[in-house]
Amino acid sequence: HRTKMVIANAIYFKGLWTLPFEKSDTRDSQFTLLDGRKKDIKLMYKHMEGTSFCNFQDIEAKAVCLSFKESKLRMFILLPNREDGLPQLLNKIFTVCPTPHGKGDKLYLDMFLSLTHYYTEEVNLYLPRFKIGEGDPSVNLNDTMMKLGVSKIFDRDVADFSGMTDVRRLFVSSIVHCAVLEVDEEGAEAAAATGISCMIECSMPPQPVDFKVTHPFVVAIADDQGTPL
């Protein structure tokens, strides 16, 4: 066996909503999958008079940000306008283009995770209870890291880990990541190892925005600086 070193990073987080969902408001509903099939779900409901919201017209999606009690972490939910719009949305926000300095350019993702692009809105939020990631295979991050400009560590001829170990000709063969996220009325529990514009739409008098998460969406937990968990 040629493995000389394994570097592991583990994160665990359990957060309670600042404003929890009332269990009595949870109803049976249906979630539309990408192939058009319907899945029975438990749909939670919460009316929020002042929540962080944004209509990202450039990527044809809307987003809300939910806060956790006694925590700087927040949950960001990005919902495509179309029921089948998730593949196109993911392609836009996670496309990473190398720059001359070797860093990735991911403006849409940065906007999604930055509260500076959000504004206070009255929202009727419908969010399913869900648990994702458990039992799923790990994701290999080699290609993602290379697109971000991190490539030398994978090259056995140029990788340099002399600051960490005396072992010679040490290089990274693979980076894998797995994550689990569970959301219910009380909060969220997560574990892990490893020229664009935002338009603000206003009406007088303002009407609550119905934010119904009943088709595939993007979810992320990040801190106040937009750094994902």
Automatic annotation (TrEMBL):
Q: Which GO terms describe its molecular function?
A: serine-type endopeptidase inhibitor activity
Question: Domain of life, per the record?
Answer: Eukaryota
Q: Which SMART domains match?
A: SERPIN (SM00093)
Q: Which Pfam families match?
A: Serpin
Q: Domain Serpin spans what residues?
A: 1-229
The species this protein belongs to is Schistocephalus solidus (Tapeworm)
Protein name, as recorded: Leukocyte elastase inhibitor
Write out the similarity annotation: Belongs to the serpin family.
The record's annotation in InterPro entries points to: Serpin_dom, Serpin_fam, Serpin_sf, Serpin_sf_1, Serpin_sf_2
This entry carries the following GO cellular component terms, namely:
extracellular space
